Amino acid sequence: MNKRKIINIMEREMVVALGCTDPIAISYAAAAARKLASNGEIKKISVILSKSIIKSAASVIIPGTKVNGVKMAAVLGALFGDANKKLEVLEGINDDSVKEAKQFINTKQCEVSEVDNDIILYLEVILETTNDIARTILIDDYSNWVYAELNGEILFDKRTKQTIEEVDEIESDLTTEEIWEFITTAELDEGFDVVRQSILLNEKIANEGLLHEYGLQVGKTLKDRLNDEKAISNMTSYAVSLTAAGADARMSGAPLPVMSNSGSGNQGITATMPVVAIAKFINADNDKRLRAVALSNLITIYAKEYFGRISALCGLTIAAMGASCGVTYLLGGGFGEIEGAIQNMAGNTIGMFCDGAKPGCALKVSTSVQAAMQAAYLAIKGINIKESDGIIEQDVDDTLKNIGKMSTQCSYLINKVIVDIMMHKKEESNK
Fold first, then answer.
1. Phi-psi region of 63 (alpha: psi -120 to 50; beta: other; left: phi over 0)
2. What distance lies between CA 378 and its chain's CA centroid?
3. For residue range 175-193, what is the model confidence (pLDDT) as tens digits?
4. By C-alpha distance, which of 335, 337, 413 is closest to 378?
5. Could you give the dihedral angle defined by the CA atoms of residues 264, 243, 275 and 285, in that order, rounded to the nearest 10 degrees?
6. Is residue 168 pLDDT above 60, yes or no?
7. Spatial contact of 134 and 36, defined as CB atoms under 8 Å apart
8. Ramachandran quadrant class, 283 (left: phi over 0; alpha: psi -120 to 50; beta: rest)
9. pLDDT at site 161
10. Is the dihedral angle over the CA atoms 138, 49, 149, 40 positive or is it negative?
């Protein structure tokens, strides 16, 4: 086991993000283009996106605002974004920023179109000013700026064959056994700072969602019901309500950063908060809690390497798989039980579609966390799905590879259908 490698992976994949990642990535690409074309008044912004980004950026509220939409995300990024802050690019925007962005959209040119390639995660912004034309491209990762062009001159081009063409076989640098060894042997001063920060940030936004009326109020409603019934002792419901509240707040524009996982803030919340909730419920010591949260996030990162950065399937199911492992560990499970929790999750919620980022994601969070708790309880009892069932393999790492095949090989067609439905619905509503 290479501890430094694992710490580097955690620090790379657990990143602070403000707001839903998809519109924020659009804002980042636009801010990066404006940084290149820094001279002159902005005349036109063109945004070219993959289906997956169109799907996920259409409905979610932009943080610090009450508005949504691809055009709004791009214009806010171009006018007010700080590209140096990457996924915190819109930190500090306010109502005046939104008014100015709306005026730009109404009086100047801002176009959105779909990219003509099969790349799952693709963002391109072309920004024209009175003096310059800048072009930026992000591929495969929400902050992976791979191409920059100014006035026809290529400033850098980091695109590779692997980022442009589909990769049939994905190989990971991790295994579940290696993750387990790290969790159980690493000293808590060895790379756990990002885990501590994830607990602080994600618990703060979860509590925000419990206190105020965001989105569908899934977490707050469940918590209020628990209080009414005096059933807060039910730790499953506690974990579900606390985690869903974080998604309620985040999807509805709460101006609070979160610790993301594998490019998604909701995944970061889902990988962290169920474990934090159960640790609090059973009075686990800080050592145990830190290791459990780290285990959850590492399993999520590992599984997402196969699953893909963005997919037609819901990534919350993968984050909940990680959470199930963290909860299993808190409840006294060993490596065998951790494997059982993964298998139980793989045979249950995997296959849930992603129909875009939106307030309703809090419901998918609650469903996934409920399944995670169930999977952990069963695993602790030695009950888990066997290799004779569906996509389950005897080796848990092979099960994760099968999930990856489902995600990567089905995503393009499924996304096409979902985006067609969403766009047709929008056209009908505008008639």
1. beta
2. 27
3. 999 999 999 999 998 789 9
4. 337
5. 120
6. no
7. yes
8. left
9. 53
10. negative
* Fold observed for domain 16-164: 60s Ribosomal Protein L30; Chain: A; (3.30.1330)
CATH number of 176-423: 1.10.4100.10
* Cα dihedral value 112, 117, 122, 125, nearest 10: -40
Q: How far apart are CA 148 and CA 53, in angstroms?
A: 20
- Tokens representing residue 343 in the block: 């298998």
Amino acid letter for position 173:
D
Q: How far apart are CA 354 and CA 103, in angstroms?
A: 32
- DSSP 8-state assignment for residue 359: T
Q: What is the mean pLDDT of the chain?
A: 88
Domain map (residue ranges) of the chain: 16-164, 176-423
What DSSP string describes 293-358? HHHHHHHHHHHHHHH-SS-SB-THHHHHHHHHHHHHHHTT--HHHHHHHHHHHHTTTTT-B---SS
Per CATH, 16-164 and 176-423 having the same topology is answered no
**Banded pLDDT at 170 (limits 50, 70, 90):** low
Q: What is the number of helices (H) and of strands (E) in the chain?
A: 16, 8
Give the tokens for residue 405.
């095949």
205 and 249 in contact (C-beta within 8 Å)? yes
In whole angstroms, give the CA distance from residue 60 to residue 428: 20
Q: Does pTM surpass 0.70?
A: yes
Nearest to 384 by CA among 420, 333, 421: 333
Which pLDDT score is estimated for 191? Answer: 85
Determine contact, residues 273/265, Cβ cutoff 8 Å: no
Extract the tokens encoding 342.
Answer: 């993964």
